[in-house]
Amino acid sequence: MIEFRKVTKVFGSGQTSVRAVNDVSFRCPRGAFWALMGPSGSGKSTILHLIAGLTPPTEGSIIVEGADVSKMTSAEAAALRRRRIGYVLQTFNLMPFLTVAENVGMPLVLDGVKQAEVNGRVKEALTMVSMSHRASHHPTHLSGGEQQRVAIARALVIRPAIALADEPTGNLDRAAGRVLMDLLQDVNERTGVTVLLVTHDPVFAAYATRVLRIVDGTLRQDTELTHEVEERDLSLAR
After folding, report:
1. Dihedral pair phi/psi, residue 198, rounded to 5°
2. What is the spatial distance between Cα 88 and Cα 92, in angstroms, rounded to a whole number?
3. Is the Cα torsion angle 219, 220, 226, 231 positive or negative in sign?
4. What pLDDT, in 10s, does the model give residues 155-165?
5. What are the structural domains of the chain?
6. Quick one: pLDDT band at residue 72, thresholds 50, 70, 90?
7. How many Cβ atoms sit within 10 Å of the Cβ of residue 238?
8. How far is CA 106 from the centre of its chain?
9. 115: which of 109, 122, 157, 189 lies 20 to 30 Å off by Cα?
10. Is 44 helix (H, G, I), strand (E, B) or coil?
């Protein structure tokens, strides 16, 4: 569960200050698939950073999995990210000198997990994204869509409660983007991981069951998309 309680985030001070998030409140239940939309600079990515404890709020409270992130120390927030929050970015951020399996296992290695368990969980995560056959390859030998699937496996290997996806289709063509969104939707449905997606694309936003529109740091619109998603799935099945 993720809850924002009158959250404001201001960067800078005085005349140069920027109110990136302005008095935002919402409650996202466990297992949900939500999308954040809005123009560039509207505060969407800042909301993800606040959830992950990468930046503290100026005002308000952020409850993630029952804990108030706004009151965590940097070490506590880092532990939350390592164990409970998977992050997928527009840029894949894969280490080119490591194999696919090594890239996926890196969060577990850094968290001190024993190698035998790392191996098993890496295999499980790669199977989930249909990339087991590429485990020994290096990222430079993969397509953009394959690299993003590896990035998703790396986010899932920690078995997170929450997956934050910040424009994950931004560097992909339309076909690869659809494959990726199908994968995120499947992971959400099969594992129950809560997915928060930042996107500019209304087609990809339609995979979510609810869309929050953010403008100038303010929550301007909250739309449930359950019926639209069902209609999209029916049309694809025809």
Report:
1. -100, 125
2. 8
3. negative
4. 999 999 999 99
5. 2-237 (3.40.50.300)
6. very high
7. 4
8. 18
9. 189
10. helix
- Identify the residue whose tokens are 């990726």: 180
Which residue from 186, 189, 1 is spatially nearest to 85, judged by alpha carbons?
1
For the stretch 171-184, pLDDT in tens is 888 998 999 999 99
Q: How long, in residues, is the chain?
A: 238
Q: Are 138 and 97 in contact (CB under 8 A)?
A: yes
DSSP code for 90: S
pLDDT at res. 226 = 67
**What b-and-e string marks burial along 41-79, b requiring 16 or more CB atoms within 10 Å of the CB?**
ebbbbbbbbbbbbbeebeebebbbeeeebbebeeeebee
Query: CA–CA separation, 29 vs 194, rounded Å?
Result: 8
Q: Cβ(121)–Cβ(153) under 8 Å?
A: no
Q: Could you give the CA distance from residue 62 to residue 49 in angstroms, rounded to a whole number?
A: 11
Instruction: Take residue 51 and report the two structure tokens written for it.
Output: 């959830």
